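Exercise 3.2. Students should predict the tertiary structure of the chain below and write it as structure tokens, then compare their answer with the key that follows.

Predict this chain's 3D structure.
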Amino acid sequence: MKKDKKTLLKKALNLPERPGVYTFYDEHGKVIYVGKAKNLKNRVTTYFQGNLNPKTAKMVSTAGNFEFIVTNTELQALLTECSLIKQHNPFFNIKLKDSTSYPYIRVRHTPMGPSIETVYSRTGDGKFFGPYGSRHNATAIRDLLKRTFSLASCANKKTQQKKLCLEYHIKHCSGFCEHKIPEDKVEKLYSEIYSVLNGKTDEIYAKTEKEMKAFAKKLDFESAAILRDRLKALDILKKRQKPLVIRNTNADYVSCVDSNEVGISSENPILCVFMFKIRNGYVTGELCDVFENTFETPESLISDYLSRYYNDCDDMPKSVYCNITFPDFDLINEWLNGKLKLPKQEQDKSIIELAKKNCKERILQHQGKAYKSQRLLASFREFTGIKKADNIEVYDVSHIAGENVVCGMISCVNGKLKKDNYKRFKISKENGNDDTAYMKEAVQRRITRFLENDKKFEPLPDVIICDGGLGQIHAVLQAVKISPLPITVIGLKKDSRHRTKSIVFENGKELLLSHNHEVFAFCGNLQEEVHRYAISYHKKLRDIQARQSELFEIDGVGKTRAKNLFLHFKSIEKIKNASVEELKTVKGITDSVARNIKKYFTTHSD
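Answer key:
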């Protein structure tokens, strides 16, 4: 049952002035927020007094009740808060990026030797390393490890080969399927793989180089050559792991930045947290989380972030460096056993600055993705002088010598392609070989469907763009006369090399797109997309026609029956394999025709 704000305030005023955890519930009893406090009474009463930011105000308005847990210390409150957040995942607590969004490398013991995979979940057997900033980086390291240690490419396949394959003979595999490696060397192999993934590449490199020289000294040049190739692969691997420091650092470097620091002013700035995971001087993992509409400060966000992240971390570093101090700094430092630090040495400061730089880059990328379409649309409106262009439709005709004529229509809403709105029209042959008439028919049918209250054709566009010049524009203008709302019609004209050149208006005026690169890219993308969409439908119809033409060889099968057969069976193979009784279920297929079809495919079978 939901309690009013006055009742909740009265309850908060009776809370003890002790450390603890408080939990807000909605009217259905679901946990919506968990927080900790040094003084429960002082903290919880602030939710019902004074000005609140929009997010907190929304949480309080949603809250139906709250409960609390008293703890002996602030540290106990922190640990309890982390536990409850992990258990309930409340809506109003910050959300760390889902661990399934980051790739890991998993190493498993198998009968075929080490199995190294790129995975997105730390579940199942084996050891996990990472997370890595991208799948590309994780996959590259995985492949380099397989190459470095001559691991079986068939490690995950249940093969029973009678003899060693080519991979073994060209020294790309160590022959795990035939157990050519002694058990003690297999264990050493696993140990070296783990060491490399833990950033100890230099150490393995030095050992391998020493072994190679020893083999060469014994004139065992074949073994030395194998280790030489391993050194080359390790060298590439070292570069892939991004060495950042000289000494063997084992630490995490965390920076938190808001969008105001990159010149994007906002009342509710975007915040970004970026972390470098460095082991033995190498970056072995990167994490990045971007937060919108949190109404947090960098200080409050990094406090929550660190407590959430390290509560669920099984790869604790020796040190955790961050770029700012915050109210709970000492508390979290106590929890992390003194690992939390502000950088003091130049080397640590430079890595923190690099993490901070990555934060800024991620914010700019995020901002670019969020507002790129709006910026492009604003540039288009300014360049063309068209005031209303929130809903744009682009039309293109595709055919070969008047056969299988189609018109594709793509939709661009608020600067973004909206594929759910795409339409395609199969055009009749009545208009002869006339592209302008084809386009007019498609637009006319589209508007007519709207006037017939077909929901799939709502709403009408603000702008129609024709792939073509004045001929197409004037034809479409004839079609839009039936529209109850004004629609602006323009065309996209191409140059002699079939590249987007200019925007054409109904009065013949042209705007060269070379004068505005942003609008040029926007219009070029629209023109390429509608052309792709139209021609793909044309090819589909052409392929169906080609497949249907074989059926015309059968006595009693004409265009209508061939079409009905394809609509029913979907492919020529299924028609070939159908029984007489199954063929007779198709509209228009009589017993004699069904037998003719069966006889034809039996006679012409391969």
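Discussion points: Residues 346-384 form the longest helix (39 residues). The two ends are 74 Å apart (CA to CA).
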